[in-house]
Design a protein that fits this description.
mainly alpha
């Protein structure tokens, strides 16, 4: 074995370890900021994902240099305009907006593919994995699954908003940072168990394998059925 493949494996493992570490550290730090009223930390954690997403889309653009310059200018202008002080006064709202916007966006992405003449997103996902047209039974199941995910994301957005208004912020933070990942995991596990019962004769890909294949050939949300 040469050094180059070993180095590639080490870099890949370090990358995945860092990603897992960040995914675990973020909710812990976010909830810590809510418990201790660490306003500056809360604002930083609430704004950081938005900045990372903006930079990620910018970097993938063919005009990345111009967009990076514009993004940097907007961020600098926000700090010069004393935006930080305003955010410090409403850092809880930043977390809420981030949470609700994410779930509503996912709700719209899934729900949009349920319109007449379109192929449901989970059907596209299954077709991208199988590389052939779906049998009618599988197509019906994946369409119902798309409905389930649409309802799930809408439900989580509504529950989050109600908790934010009716419960202490620390309770909302525990729901958003700890209960939400558990709910998402439960959805995946429950769906897998139901799929084994409803479609026993269909080949079932492992979750990580499905994600890898889907990422390499992502579906188009507006693809007609």
């Amino acid at each position: 074995m040469t050094l180059r493949p070993v180095a590639v494996d080490i870099v890949r493992n370090l990358k995945w370890t860092a990603m897992v570490g960040l995914l675990l550290a973020y909710p812990l730090l976010a909830h810590y900021s809510a418990l201790t009223a660490s306003v500056d930390l809360g604002v930083l954690l609430a704004v950081l994902p938005l900045v990372v997403i903006a930079l990620g889309f910018t970097w993938r653009s063919p005009r990345r240099l111009a967009l990076l310059a514009i993004t940097g200018f907007v961020i600098s202008l926000a700090f010069l305009a004393d935006t930080w002080d305003m955010l410090r006064q409403h850092f809880g709202w930043l977390f809420l907006v981030q949470y609700v916007a994410t779930h509503l966006a996912l709700c719209l992405v899934f729900g949009h593919t349920l319109l007449a003449g379109r192929q449901a997103l989970c059907s596209q996902f299954a077709a991208a994995i199988e590389h052939h047209p779906l049998p009618p039974g599988v197509s019906r199941y994946t369409r119902k699954l798309t409905v389930a995910w649409t309802v799930y994301f809408a439900f989580m957005a509504v529950v989050s908003s109600l908790l934010f208004w009716l419960a202490p912020f620390t309770v909302w933070s525990a729901f958003a940072n700890f209960l939400t990942p558990l709910c998402l995991l439960f959805m995946f596990l429950a769906e897998y168990a139901i799929r084994l019962c409803v479609l026993p004769h269909v080949k079932h890909s492992r979750l990580l394998e499905s994600i890898r294949i889907f990422w390499q050939s992502p579906p188009t949300p507006g693809r007609p059925s």
